[in-house]
Structures are given as structure tokens and as C-alpha cells.
């Protein structure tokens, strides 16, 4: 055991010694802004990934649910890691290791072929379908209001406009599908020209268009060729203007407030830009 395991609880360390006797920690991939530990380990010559959550963590439950119910379209073709061990009560899981480099920060982040593949992979996930939820948009609005009720640095006049906009919403039923929840290059790997997917801590049933929010705010915005490439792989654009506007507004509020609360100033600045863009793009 190494010092990297000190961030795990005693119960989590006990489970690891049962599942992976003699493991060696090779790298700590924890993000540092949230209470999730991500370790690359080896055991009996095999490379694996350990993910463990702290007491307030809710991401491990989502990740485990995704592994058990929705990832077969990717794991069946070797484009997402297979689950090996898990304990929901102790908030820990072990998956196979996928080789590759993060697309974020790599030349692949600017390659149209990356986005064709990302679109195709997302199409496979969304094609599983799901229920129609009459209350989804109400929950989306309530979630945005809770972010506004908490600590943030959104200017008072902008907050007033946002609250007025939320009050005008006319929520509609939404068709839900399995979604990744953080679909963007920092959660894609590239290896031998193929894109694979990691990190399912925000996976849930949502409208398909919700998986486009991060790309639209970042990669599609900086290079329209990437958006065209993505839909070449994905198929028809699922974004209905009014529902898309509501989603963008909620995502923008959540991004600005969450980033402020965890101290990520660059991401907070992106959230404020997203708010400005969403307010300026309100459909008639």
C-alpha cells in the first residue's frame, strides 16, 4: 500500500485488499476539486482503475448504475471499461484500465475524426431509449433555482434576469435516454486512432440534447467544423429551440455556481459566459 491509499476510508482499503491482494498504486488521477479518488493500480500483472467517493459523494452511485444498466453498447466494442468490483454502500468500484491519452489537450481535440467517432458513440448510448418524464423540466427549473439560492458570484442584475426567465418557463414533458452527463474531450481517450469513454459519475436518464451542452459551450463554439463532424457521426440534431434554451440556461447557472463553490475560477468564468450567451439567445 502507498500513501495514495490514505485518501480512502478504512472500509474501502479493506475491500481493495480483498478484491486485489498485493495491488500496487501506479498513478493518482484524482481531479482534486471534488471528493473522488481515482487511482491507477496494478495487480497480478493487470492494470486497473479504482474510484472511491468520500462521505458526501453521489457520483459513485451514478457511475455504478451506468455500468450495470447502460454501458453495454460501448463495453461490447471495447470503448468503455468493464466493471470488475463494486460496493455501493462503501462508494468504491474497480474497472478495467483502458489504454490511451486524454483527448483534452491532445491534437485529437482539434481533429474532426475525433468528433465523428464521439457522435457515433453517443448515438449508440442514446439509442437505448427511455421513458417520457412529465416532470423533468420542472426539476430542471428547481435545480437552477437552488443554485441561485446558494453561494455564487453572478451579478445581482443578471440574477434578477435569470429568475425572471425561470419564472416564465412553460415546462413540457421530456423523452429521457441514458446520458453520459459530461460529454466532452476530458472524458474521451484516444488510442490507435479510436475514441473511448471514461468517467460516468454524472450519468443519468435525461433528454438526449443534454449531452451536447458542454460541447456547444466549448468545442462547437470554437470550431464549427467540429459540430458538423459530430452530427456526421450522431445523426439528426435533437435540440428543439425552446427546450434547448431552458437546458442551456440551467447548465450555465449550475456551471457558474458550482465552479465558484469549488474554487475553479476559469470554469466559473466559462459559466458566466454561458449565462450571457443563453440570455442573449432566448428564442421568440
From TrEMBL:
Signal peptide: none
Domain of life: Bacteria
A Pfam short name: APH
Gene3D superfamilies: 3.90.1200.10
Name under which the protein is recorded: Aminoglycoside phosphotransferase domain-containing protein
Cross-referenced InterPro entries: Aminoglycoside_PTrfase (IPR002575), Kinase-like_dom_sf (IPR011009)
Coiled coil feature spans: none
Aminoglycoside phosphotransferase domain sequence ranges: 57-243
